[in-house]
Specification:
alpha+beta, two-stranded antiparallel sheet
Length: about 110
């Protein structure tokens, strides 16, 4: 939720920050994020992307299930695209952006 100024509500962003609450002594190696960006406004998506990037810089592998392509393309090194449970593409963000099947399935011709 946003404030009237369009800024992200601090409490809403905190609700989406489970990864930042990981105890430093636990040293996780993998973090699964399922639709982290769902329902977030533009400002909140940017903040969440920054958070995911910071987590990755700590050496934690992040596995994201996400429909917000801006987020996926902005924070992932490798992307696997599914359509009806079947893999239709895999590669770098650049590979995925150029993949004709992905474009047809998700954007139409």
């Amino acid at each position: 939720m946003s404030t009237s100024s369009g800024m992200a509500s601090p409490s809403r962003v905190r609700q989406r920050r489970p990864a930042s609450e990981v105890n430093a002594t636990e040293r996780p190696t993998l973090l699964l994020l399922d639709e982290l960006m769902a329902g977030l406004n533009h400002t909140e998506v940017v903040q969440a992307m920054e958070l995911v990037t910071a987590i990755r810089k700590r050496g934690i592998t992040v596995f994201m299930i996400e429909h917000v392509m801006k987020a996926i393309m902005g924070v992932c090194d490798r992307i696997l695209v599914l359509h009806h449970g079947e893999k239709i593409a895999e590669g770098t963000p650049e590979d995925i952006a150029r993949n004709r099947t992905v474009v047809e399935v998700y954007l139409g011709e």
